[in-house]
């Protein structure tokens, strides 16, 4: 088991450590408070300015010994499937002949130089998890959102009542928000003037220049306080101001979610270890207020950094911020108010290499993209274009991969959905077959809201330059390492040559031993045993689902038993008694079953008239039905399963024959003649083995939530003995 984690500094000063004067970053916004005391190294702390793995490797053994640290080591990889990562800590004990370090304890390893520490943990847990429990969470921006400085800046902007910015300046926002954002231009301009280091007007997009110069100036006292916050806050106050002004739902149009500091530190550690040379050009797609841009200027002072975004306001905040202008950083900064996908095709090819695409692309869901935007994004992605259900960040990933030259690299913070979604299959296949580039997937915990309010898990992908040797794909599970940062625990490391790509880039799918074990088992896909389908999509559950009292006022035969929420069912069997209990509790558990002939019945006609007066017939699903009130007829399922869960998925035997709504999945045996087959399958799906199989195909969302989709659910491997499969048996059906 190999861990990438932060370590404690020995307390040496810069001179003793061999750093040149001024070698450390002066930007305290990118440094942990403990690092300012000279006691931290690694991904959870501040980083050494511009020191990549190549720079660190240039120091002698005596340099490291003088400061109490130890010399890094580069290991020549053996051609075997179980080889360890290329860079590791130097062991005090000999490396076993097997080449594995899993048997070694932490005491057998010395500390690594700045960056991530590759450490070996004794195998105390089979799943490779951290033994210690993590204290208070690292990412907690809510604590600082109500900082007095942030609140006072927002209050001042709200009190200006300016003409709103054009809607195209910040798409998705309303007039009131754009009026407040217009005033924010005065704050940004004042920051630059006060520090006397404003970015040259000629380097700013014209729209940004106009925004900065059009707003009134805020009070000097407010700017003084904001300048202080910019140099000492744990979270970027400019990002917090923007979040306070623009509500989260309206930030989603542009996918504006800012990157927490500990995540930046973790990414810095990856790049320190994996980049053999400092990039000459860095591109920050969807730059926002500049978390990655300012970091890149600090980490690689000699690199040209291009910040690309369509959001006028966030680019303006980035371009005028004081912490960009230390040591002449702005000479290397290029601010571009452009669509990144267009910029990538037009400007990127002319830039010098080696190049790095690094950032947090916009998290914009596919529903918020127009058909024209999707077609443009697909064209930019070329032959690995994602499907139309992909979000904008997946298009950014695909287009960036296609734009890499041999010496280029990529490191992006992304939502984790693409790792298993069908729409990204072409992207995953491309990564799988790119065997001469190292590919790393770092998965953050589901409960950690890196993208607040989205309920989407986060991950980091690193793709290295082309090597002369075959390279591995590695999957790391990121864990909170107390208050010191994150630890990346190596879960799987696989060779990709001559092996077909897995269906998903998940821990189970990338585990070679697990795949071999599954092949040895006698299993059948769940879809060979059952029909799987979602329940009825009504388009208006409150209208189509009736209470027992409402049902009793309608003619017989116009309602059927139904269920819409798995949590309403207390047991593992939905019997007649249990369904009657739902009605007694006032739940809506009867579904309208109407056709055009029923519409002539007075009671039904009155009900439909009431629905039309409420606009039910104009809702999307109702509008496309003819007539609008005639729901689809589905076969009664034998089993009901809830598609969402954190640790378990409820499976309920549908004894009463209720029709589920589309919030549930229904499973119906293909051969229902086998005695007890339904109960046997339900018992297995509810067992630890069955639940593990379901979790292995579930999609990970934020806040620890797991979701089953029909496609992955259909391939869940079920022991063949659970249900006897009779392929030629007729399927008996019960129509509701």
From TrEMBL:
Entries under SUPFAM superfamilies matching the protein: S-adenosyl-L-methionine-dependent methyltransferases (SSF53335)
Xref: InterPro entries: M_Eco57I_C (IPR054520), MethylTrfase_TaqI-like_dom (IPR011639), N4_N6_ade-DNA_methylase (IPR050953), SAM-dependent_MTases_sf (IPR029063)
Region Disordered: start-end pairs: 1-62
Gene Ontology terms describing biological process: DNA modification; methylation
Superkingdom of this protein's organism: Bacteria
EC number(s) recorded for this UniProt protein: 2.1.1.72
GO molecular function terms attached to this record: site-specific DNA-methyltransferase (adenine-specific) activity
Start and end residues of each Type II methyltransferase M.Eco57I C-terminal domain: 515-726
Catalytic reactions of this protein: a 2'-deoxyadenosine in DNA + S-adenosyl-L-methionine = an N(6)-methyl-2'-deoxyadenosine in DNA + S-adenosyl-L-homocysteine + H(+)
Family according to the record: Belongs to the N(4)/N(6)-methyltransferase family.
PANTHER family: DNA METHYLASE (MODIFICATION METHYLASE) (METHYLTRANSFERASE)-RELATED, DNA METHYLTRANSFERASE YEEA-RELATED
Name recorded for this polypeptide: site-specific DNA-methyltransferase (adenine-specific)
Species for this entry: Streptomyces phyllanthi
């Amino acid at each position: 088991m190999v861990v990438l984690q932060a370590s404690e500094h020995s307390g040496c000063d810069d001179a003793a450590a061999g750093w040149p004067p001024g070698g450390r970053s002066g930007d305290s916004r990118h440094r942990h408070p403990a690092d300012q005391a000279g006691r931290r190294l690694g991904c959870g702390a501040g980083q050494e300015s511009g020191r990549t793995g190549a720079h660190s490797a240039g120091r002698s053994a005596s340099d490291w010994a003088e400061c109490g640290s130890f010399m890094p080591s580069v290991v020549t990889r053996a051609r075997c499937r179980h080889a360890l990562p290329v860079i590791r800590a130097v062991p005090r004990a000999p490396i076993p002949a097997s080449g594995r370090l899993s048997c070694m304890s932490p005491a057998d390893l010395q500390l690594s130089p700045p960056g991530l520490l590759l450490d070996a943990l004794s195998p105390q847990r089979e799943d490779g998890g951290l033994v210690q429990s993590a204290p208070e969470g690292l990412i907690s921006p809510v604590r600082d959102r109500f900082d007095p400085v942030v609140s006072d800046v927002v209050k001042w902007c709200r009190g200006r009542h300016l003409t709103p910015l054009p809607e195209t300046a910040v798409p998705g926002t309303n007039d009131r928000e754009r009026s407040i954002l217009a005033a924010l231009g005065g704050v940004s301009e004042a920051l630059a003037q006060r520090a006397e280091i404003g970015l040259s007007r000629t380097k700013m997009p014209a729209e940004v220049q106009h925004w900065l110069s059009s707003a009134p100036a805020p009070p000097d006292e407010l700017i003084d306080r904001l300048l202080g916050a910019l140099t000492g806050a744990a979270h970027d106050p400019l990002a917090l101001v923007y979040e306070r002004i623009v509500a989260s739902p309206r930030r989603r149009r542009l996918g504006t979610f800012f990157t927490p500091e500990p995540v930046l530190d973790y990414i810095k550690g990856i790049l320190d270890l994996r980049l053999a040379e400092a990039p000459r050009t860095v591109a920050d797609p969807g730059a926002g207020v500049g978390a990655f841009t300012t970091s890149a200027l600090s980490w690689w002072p000699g690199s040209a950094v291009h910040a690309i975004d369509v959001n006028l306001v966030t680019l303006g905040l980035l371009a005028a911020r004081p912490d960009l202008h230390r040591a002449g950083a702005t000479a290397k900064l290029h601010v571009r108010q452009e669509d990144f996908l267009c910029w990538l095709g037009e400007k990127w090819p002319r830039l010098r290499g080696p190049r790095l695409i690094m950032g947090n692309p916009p998290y914009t869901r596919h529903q918020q993209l127009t058909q024209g935007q999707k077609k443009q994004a697909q064209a930019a992605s070329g032959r690995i274009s994602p499907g139309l259900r992909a979000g904008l960040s997946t298009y950014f990933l695909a287009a960036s991969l296609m734009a890499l030259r041999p010496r280029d690299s990529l490191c992006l913070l992304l939502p984790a959905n693409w790792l298993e979604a069908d729409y990204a299959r072409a992207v995953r296949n491309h990564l799988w077959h790119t065997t001469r580039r190292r590919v790393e997937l770092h998965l953050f915990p589901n409960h950690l809201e890196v993208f607040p309010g989205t309920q989407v898990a986060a991950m980091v992908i690193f793709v290295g330059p082309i090597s002369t040797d075959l390279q591995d794909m590695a999957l790391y599970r990121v864990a909170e390492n107390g208050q010191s940062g994150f630890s990346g625990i190596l879960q799987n490391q696989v060779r990709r040559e001559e092996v077909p790509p897995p269906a998903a880039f998940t821990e189970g799918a990338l585990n070679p031993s697990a795949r071999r074990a599954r092949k040895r088992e006698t299993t059948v896909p769940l879809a060979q045993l059952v029909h799987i389908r979602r329940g009825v999509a009504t388009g208006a559950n409150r209208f189509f689902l009736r209470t027992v009292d409402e049902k009793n006022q309608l003619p017989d035969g116009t309602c059927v038993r139904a269920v819409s929420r798995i949590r309403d069912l207390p047991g593992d069997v939905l019997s007649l008694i249990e369904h009657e209990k739902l009605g007694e509790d006032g739940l809506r558990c009867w579904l309208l079953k109407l056709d055009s002939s029923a519409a002539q019945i007075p009671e039904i006609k009155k009900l439909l008239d009431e629905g039309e007066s409420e606009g039910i017939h104009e809702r999307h699903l109702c509008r496309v039905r003819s007539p609008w009130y005639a729901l689809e007829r589905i076969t009664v399922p034998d089993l009901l399963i809830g598609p969402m869960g954190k640790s378990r998925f409820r499976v309920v035997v549908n004894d009463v024959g209720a029709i589920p709504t589309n919030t549930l999945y229904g499973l119906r045996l293909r051969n229902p003649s086998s005695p007890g087959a339904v109960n046997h399958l339900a018992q297995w799906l509810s067992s630890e083995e069955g639940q593990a199989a379901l979790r292995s195909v579930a999609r990970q969302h934020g806040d620890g939530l797991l979701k089953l989709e029909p496609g992955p659910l259909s391939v869940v491997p079920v022991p063949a003995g659970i249900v006897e499969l009779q392929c030629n048996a007729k399927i008996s059906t019960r129509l509701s």
